[in-house]
Amino acid sequence: MCLAGCGRSDEKLAQPSERAVQRAWSPRWSPDGKRIACLVADSHGKAFVHVTDSSLSMPETLVGEWAVSPDREPQTSRISLSAPEGLVWSPDGVSLLIPGVEWFEFDDKDRLPGSGLWRLSMRGGKPQPAGVHPESYEDELYSYRSPTWSSDGSRLAWVGVDTDGQASIVTRNTRVAADAASARVEPAADSDWPCYSPVAAKLAFIRRILRGPTSSPAYQVRIAEPGMPNGRTLWTWAASGQAADPGNDRDVSRAGRYGPALQGLCWSPTGKRLALSVLENESRDAAGRIWLIDEHEGGRPTPLTTAREGDLRAPTWIDDHHIGAVRRTPSGHELVSVKISTGRVQKLIGLPSTDFDWSPDRKRIVVALQKEAGPTGHGGLQVLSTGL
Description:
388 residues, single chain
């Protein structure tokens, strides 16, 4: 579909008469663990970008009246099948990537809201384009979300979504113009959870394959690197009754009638292994188990936890010997630690919300509470000790 033009995020939105309800979301620790950034959005689609110290006592508004989305709520939970949306710090801690509205105008004058990514410097100034659509845009990925940086800051990757909800991984070299044609990693794929290795320019992501309208999807973990834009498959979790793809694709799991689903992909600190949660199926109540993939041993995955440890999602490497995760309980959720050598699960703390972030040293988390926040996010965030 060809676009006649693309609006920018500074376009004014209509102001409804009722009072806007504000809520803090997407809290993120800075790489040095000294600051916390978050978005405080109101019910009219306007957002404010705030940064505060780690004690939440010195909030500062960096951007106000920033248009995020006029027609939908962001997905910020870490336990969802799709990667959480929101802002992200640059590896050097001097800037933030934030989402913002882009307006698309078609030849028939119809208009569609999408979203792009802007870079906000901690030194001040207006947000600058970091991953936006060119003025003449002929693809259909109108919304950009869930960005991630390479460890050296030279590359960006994010998820591009079309109007049907199909998602593809998009990458950009940060040394070229922000509105230059960005590259899809796989043109026809439904992919999510991009994450760069901490020690190389390897991009891992999850790919969903639906072979027919009535079939169950298969899921793959794939790797893309510079010089290998289309990526390679580490492993395939095939749906029940389906054969895995030929070549590098191997069928390792036939869990349940409707087949498995994957979420929470992340690299180990050394960049040698990946952790993820493998769910029984795509339903909201499906139970998840933590699996590990050793890329240097042919990509063969091994289960770290079993069903008796409960529904475990959103793995995060605490160190090379422990993984943190979110476990569902009858009354909500809790944060746990899993010992890699034994698979033993230990409760850390109760979790007020699944919109949260680990501090770099894993000793604290910051949580976005599901209640109304003050103008600077006060009352909408909470910092908790993990006990590690």
